[in-house]
């Protein structure tokens, strides 16, 4: 039986790095909320997390990548634009509709955003492995 692509050391490193970038993303969203709307804060936090994720993935996860760093960053950005659409869709759907519908009020925006950040992990890993850091 063939092993699934995400059950390996590289995927574990990717999840670890993504977790670190998610902390940056999550924290910066909370800080940005003091000045901007929820959606704008999510986008700003995404940029902070994206930069952290690119640097750490390049150094730790995909360190054997031989590609041009500028091209890799552009591809990383494009893959993460797809992730951003997923993050915003999940976060806003949970925050504005699903969690209120089930009566969830405890840190609703934070819970919604946390789940949103985590939602594209498999898609992002696959696309970065196959396209960004070949």
Shape: globular
Helix content: over 70%
The overall average pLDDT, rounded, is 91
The count of domains is: 1
Question: Given the structure, what is the number of helices?
Answer: 5
**Rg of Cα set:** 16 Å
How much of the sequence lies in strands comes to under 5%
**Element pattern in H and E:** HHHHH
Distance between the termini: 25 Å
The computed structural class is: mainly alpha
The major sheet is characterized as: none
State the total count of DSSP E strands: 0
Regions with little confidence, pLDDT below 50 for 5+ residues? none
Account of the 3D structure:
With 134 residues, this protein is mostly helical. The protein has one domain. 78% of the residues lie in helices and 0% in strands. The protein is built from five helices and no strands. The model has no long low-confidence stretch (mean pLDDT 91).
């Amino acid at each position: 039986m063939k092993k699934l692509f995400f059950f390996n050391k590289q995927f574990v490193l990717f999840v670890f790095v993504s977790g670190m970038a998610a902390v940056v993303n999550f924290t910066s969203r909370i800080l940005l909320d003091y000045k901007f709307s929820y959606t704008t804060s999510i986008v700003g936090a995404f940029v902070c997390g994206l930069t952290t994720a690119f640097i750490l993935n390049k150094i730790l996860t995909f360190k054997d990548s031989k590609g041009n760093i500028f091209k890799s960053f552009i591809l990383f950005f494009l893959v993460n634009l797809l992730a951003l659409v997923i993050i915003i869709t999940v976060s806003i759907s949970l925050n504005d509709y699903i969690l209120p519908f089930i009566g969830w009020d405890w840190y609703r925006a934070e819970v919604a955003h946390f789940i949103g950040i985590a939602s594209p992990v498999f898609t992002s890993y696959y696309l970065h492995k196959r396209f960004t850091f070949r």
